[in-house]
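ENTRY TYPE: paired fold submission
RECORD: A
CONTENT: sequence, then structure tokens
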Amino acid sequence: MRKLSLSLAAACALSASAAQPNDTLNSRLYRLFTPLTFYHNVSGNMLSLSQSANAADEAVDQALMSVYLNRPDLVKTTETQLQETGTLRQDIDQPIEQRVELTELAAPMPDEPDVVPTSGVEVTKPKFWTRKGDGFLQFMQNYVSDNWYKGGESTYSLLGSLTLEANYDNKGKWKWDNKLEAKLGFLTAKSDSLHKWKSNEDLLRLTSKVGLQATKRWYYTLQLLAWTQFARGLKSNDHRTYSDFFSPFNLNAGLGMDYKVEAFDKKLTGTVNLSPIALNYRYVGRTGFPKKNAQTVDEADISWFPSRHGIDDGEHYKLDPGSQVTADLTWKLNENVTWKSRFWAFTSYKRAEVEWENTFQLKVSKYITANIFLYPRFDDGNAPDDDLGYWQFKEYTSIGLSYSF
């Protein structure tokens, strides 16, 4: 180790004294300051009989040979490996300069606000109530000349309807549906010498249901129905009044189950209510109606008014327990035709009432529609008719303005 140190010191001294300003790049002094490498010409120069012309190169070779012989473990690579790696590029004659770009002093960052903005996210209060409605005003006209070969008479009628709904759904278990329906229509005919106008469609009805969800589509429901009319009910060339406001008035309460209908890709929607426990209250405030089983005009004139509506003579109300079924459906057959159907049936197990209202609505344009209304009814609480028995029937067609909101 001491010999190695002395050799390296001697080589350094020689290199310092022998190196002149005109030394070329081929000088071997750099070999002392690079990782130790085994050079082929070192051993060749040491064994050569001729003496090197450069004393510094000879000293370097002696120092490297001493390392090769005494500490071969320090040699990391060979000249052959260096040649395989390649040489430095000789085509670069210009020094490489670093480009440094200076930027202006950046402004200090503003202090962050205490409240972080929500990036446009708006939190609104849940909307539990939904409201909607629709209405129409339609005109019907039929003209027949006095000399028409088949006879007949001209008639004119006007019909208005309004439906309002307000429904509550807390998106959980409870719902509360409310619907108010109002219809009023008047008819005039030349053959009626007593009445210039008389009603041919008259209804004021409220439907209210409170439901507690049992399954996905079934609800435990308490349903309340109340209905009466606006104007007096008259017949052609008859001075008697057959019905009036609150005469009759019906109030019906039913406890049961309500089923939510969604079918045919939600084109058929609505509800079906089954109430095995129901109570029907009917009230007639006016007197003077014809008796339901009157055989003569005189007997009808002096009879008790409420008896025509299934109430006993001398009474103004009747209370019937029983059961009922109610269905309220809307079927959008296509883009222009909609079928609205309401079915209601009540039985006290002594008498039965069945009503089936059907409205086919044809959309002519955005604000013009044509309606076909079919209304069969069954009621065995009154005397049967000679032709239809306990069945009753109403039908009309109309066209006019309509609006939904």
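RECORD: B
CONTENT: sequence, then structure tokens
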Amino acid sequence: METKNAHILITGANRGIGRAFAERMAEDKAHLILPLRTEDPELKKILLEKGAASVEISKLDLSDRLNIERFIEENKARDIDILFNNAGMLTGGLIEEQKIEEIYQLLQVNISALIHMTHGFLPQMLKRKKGKVINHASVSGYLYFPCASVYAASKAAVIAFTQSVELELKNTGVSTLCLVTPGVETRMYRDISNKYSKNLDVGFLKGMPVKEYADRIRYAIHEDVEFLKPTGFQGIGLLANKYARPLFNRYVMGKFKR
């Protein structure tokens, strides 16, 4: 699918992977629709300077169902070529020590809001017989580390949801892309140490530059890849988890303490 001049809706575009991808799409002269939880007055200026055909920023709180419904109702008739459900939250630590309020909020943002946005914008894509839904999962959706229980559950749900919808969309002109995101140098990634390190040695985790991952997403869109999976150490981890689960568990438990 071509990204030049495409109309692209990106959640969570004010930082991290969403921000890097928005900047990459600006260079492709895309039309960017960016619903954000907090105002970012400089973002529009930056993206226009990078070449975006247009930039529209509005307010959207993905932790609020009624707020999502309002946003969809106001925008559902628009011609959206790509919906990138990028926004997400991270929790971490022993399950009994995680705050229950944060758990509920994470599940709302990481999976319920993602489903809600897909539900709202898919009908117009199907009507036009054109479009792509990108859902942001994670290697945590396959690799189940201690201290990542709730986050991993949310990302496994994203993978399952995307695979199911992918089958529903066969021969419709609309497709999906599931990002099985590895470690990427973002603020959320750096926060893993704060949330996990009390019980889990995370020194083995290595992140790639965020702009490099934005380029990989762009390539996956252009090539109509359905799953963007990691390479290198984390790609090997996926294979080890699939084919040698006991060995994977032994390695992980060697870095865990209660």
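NOTES ON RECORD B: The mean pLDDT is 95. The chain is about 50% helix and 15% strand.
STATUS: closed
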